[in-house]
Design brief:
10 helices, about 260 residues, mainly alpha
């Protein structure tokens, strides 16, 4: 890995970390485009495998703060993550078998869905004292498996799906869902990364620099979010616009490659 590649990976990781710290779920969707078009990873599958590893490490690091603050609902989070891990294993296997060009088009379309999902306001209501029971467990297993499959196929954290999924399955408030979702983001990412790593589709050196940059960017993003708390809705709309713009760029690049 050249010094230039290492620096670009560090900077790209910082951008993703900053986006995650600033806007919460959805920031990791930028990891694959940055690895492909900025860092210079040539293979889409390697970009996805490397992204999944970075997302997993960052999620597990971030869950510590939520755990200490008591917002993580461990029984619900564990059931959701366990069922989603099976889905992520299947989804990532299908992703590896999908043509790289097709995968990028589908990934760009997923980015469009993320962008529009971030424009919708999230409901904060819910039961903070929720306790898992057989009915809730069944819902969490079903929704978790589906969410994990999508996350594994695209190699993304899937926080934009996991948070509403946990809320729908358990009825917990959004604050608890955000903290609990990080466990699933980490588990799904680790499962996907392991699957890709077995096929030699993880660029370990690049992943290390990406993760290092993400830590610093995440701290700066969280501080910025606190300072601009009154403008959180505006920040979310701005970031959604960036995601949609990157998706459009990927679709244009894919179309040009197809016709040539």
């Amino acid at each position: 890995m050249s010094a230039a590649t290492a620096l670009l990976a560090l900077l790209s990781g910082s951008i993703v970390g900053f986006a995650l710290g600033l806007s919460g779920g959805g920031g990791s969707i930028l990891a694959v485009p940055l690895l492909l078009y900025v860092v210079g990873v040539s293979d889409p599958h390697t970009a996805i495998g490397t992204s999944a590893l970075a997302v997993a490490v960052n999620a597990f690091a971030n869950v510590i703060g939520h755990w200490r603050s008591g917002t993580v609902k461990w029984p619900c989070a564990t059931v959701f993550a366990a069922s989603g891990a099976a889905g992520a294993a299947l989804g990532s296997t299908l992703g590896k078998l999908t043509d790289g060009g097709v995968l990028l088009v589908l990934f760009a379309l997923a980015m469009v869905a993320v962008g529009f999902a971030m424009l919708k306001p999230r409901m904060a209501a819910g039961d903070p004292a929720v306790r898992i029971d057989p009915r809730i467990a069944a819902r969490l297993i079903g929704i978790g498996a589906l969410t994990g499959g999508i996350s594994g196929f695209f190699g993304i954290g899937g926080g934009f799906l996991i948070v509403p999924g946990i809320m729908l399955g358990s009825g917990m408030p959004i604050l608890n869902a955000i903290g609990s979702s990080l466990i699933s983001v980490g588990v799904f990412g680790a499962t996907t990364a392991a699957n890709y790593a077995l096929a030699g589709l993880v660029a370990w050196n690049i992943a290390g620099m990406f993760i290092l940059g993400g830590i610093g960017g995440g701290i700066l993003g969280m501080k910025t979010a606190i300072a601009l708390a009154s403008r959180k809705a505006l920040l979310s709309r701005l970031f959604a616009g960036i995601v949609l713009a990157v998706a459009a760029y990927m679709l244009i690049r894919s179309a040009i490659a197809f016709f040539h």
